């Protein structure tokens, strides 16, 4: 059965691209060690890979790539969030899947693993045959009601923005911000001793994209207070310039005084 190989250098990636037969489907999973959904996706992909025996020539090649350490590769394939799956054949991208939907990932892999191969190769790609497993996946994908999916996402977002009195939706984590604006926002909250919760939007593309519509605010970071959107970095700075005590009710110092 197939296994997943970790790509550790740019040279290793280029060697894979140059030596893989034109018919081989390369399944490249971009991940980050701090993103919990990536660990879940790694389990999903490991299970899927085990369904594809090693053939000659190889019908599939499974690799994982640290999106931050190998940033040049990430940029080449427009990886802006993780987990992120890139499917390639003959150096050409045939499909990408952003997010942690196991159904979407399985459907994409099974669809493209069938292409450019003989019937015998198709049958060898999975113990019960690719066509059979693809038929199992399609009804699940078709059964997803977009309106219901959006309703469930918005309910989740409603819970997330109220998870703490002050919630920061940022790129990265407070200890390792992934953009300058997020870093500045963390600095402001730290300077005002604000006790806050945070969500790394790079770890969940559904939240990252959905929150833009839910909040009617297209950029990050986003700061929410008591379940209401304050805004981005510029708005927070404006609030503080007009009211230096804006964060006082939410500061650790305020809690200590009250105690």
Automatic annotation (TrEMBL):
Residue ranges occupied by any Glutaredoxin domain in the UniProt entry: 166-230
Pfam families: Glutaredoxin (PF00462), Thioredoxin (PF00085)
GO molecular function (one): glutathione disulfide oxidoreductase activity
SUPFAM superfamilies documented for this protein: Thioredoxin-like
Keywords: Iron, Iron-sulfur, Metal-binding
UniProt-listed InterPro entries: Glutaredoxin, GRX_PICOT-like, Monothiol_GRX-rel, Thioredoxin-like_sf, Thioredoxin_domain
Membrane spanning residue stretches: none
Family that this chain belongs to: Belongs to the glutaredoxin family. Monothiol subfamily.
Function per UniProt: Monothiol glutaredoxin involved in the biogenesis of iron-sulfur clusters. Binds one iron-sulfur cluster per dimer. The iron-sulfur cluster is bound between subunits, and is complexed by a bound glutathione and a cysteine residue from each subunit.
Protein name: Predicted protein
Source organism (scientific name): Hypocrea jecorina (strain QM6a) (Trichoderma reesei)
Classification lineage: Eukaryota, Fungi, Dikarya, Ascomycota, Pezizomycotina
